[in-house]
Amino acid sequence: EVQLVESGGGLVQVGESLRLSCVASGDIISSNAMGWFRQYPGKEREAVADISHSGGTLYATSVKGRFTVTRDIDKRTLYLDMRSLKSEDTATYFCAAYVGRTYFGPPRYWGQGTQVTVSS
């Protein structure tokens, strides 16, 4: 079974940066598309950033230019580098793995989530 374990969340000030990490089991990070989602209390999860098998990326409009998704296949780790953080970035962030090589359709596997709080 695929396991995704996030880390790196925490409390930061507006304008600061934070890096989230997601360690994936097996070789899914090299064979499947991966992504980051976030969820506000009482709301559905929303896509933040995706990376396909070939390295193509897609970002939500709200984070474009501020967030960067990358992966280190050797370390089996997916990253989300977040800079110029805003209070509206406060949410629980989830790592996800898709069924195939592209990020179309819902992810199949999810991490447990990590809380990011941006304080003004």
Question: What keywords describe this structure?
Answer:
globular; 120 residues; mainly beta; single chain; seven-stranded mixed beta sheet; 1 helix
- Structural Rg: 13 Å
Roughly what fraction of the amino acids lie in strands? over 45%
Indicate the low-confidence ranges by residue numbers.
none
Q: How far apart are the first and last residues' alpha carbons, in Å?
A: 40 Å
Structural class estimated from helices and strands? mainly beta
Determine the mean pLDDT. 96
Fraction of helical residues: under 10%
Shape estimate = globular
Largest sheet: 7 strands, mixed
Q: Could you state the order of secondary-structure elements as H and E? A: EEEHEEEEEEEE
How many DSSP helices?
A: 1
The total beta strand count reads 11
Structure description:
This protein is mostly beta strands and 120 residues long. Helix content is 3%, strand content 48%. It is built from one helix and eleven strands; from the N terminus they run E-E-E-H-E-E-E-E-E-E-E-E. Strands 2, 4, 5, 6, 9, 10 and 11 form a seven-stranded mixed β-sheet that branches. It has a four-stranded antiparallel β-sheet with strand order 1-3-8-7, with no helix packed on it. Strand 7 (67-72) and strand 8 (77-82) form a beta hairpin. The mean pLDDT is 96.
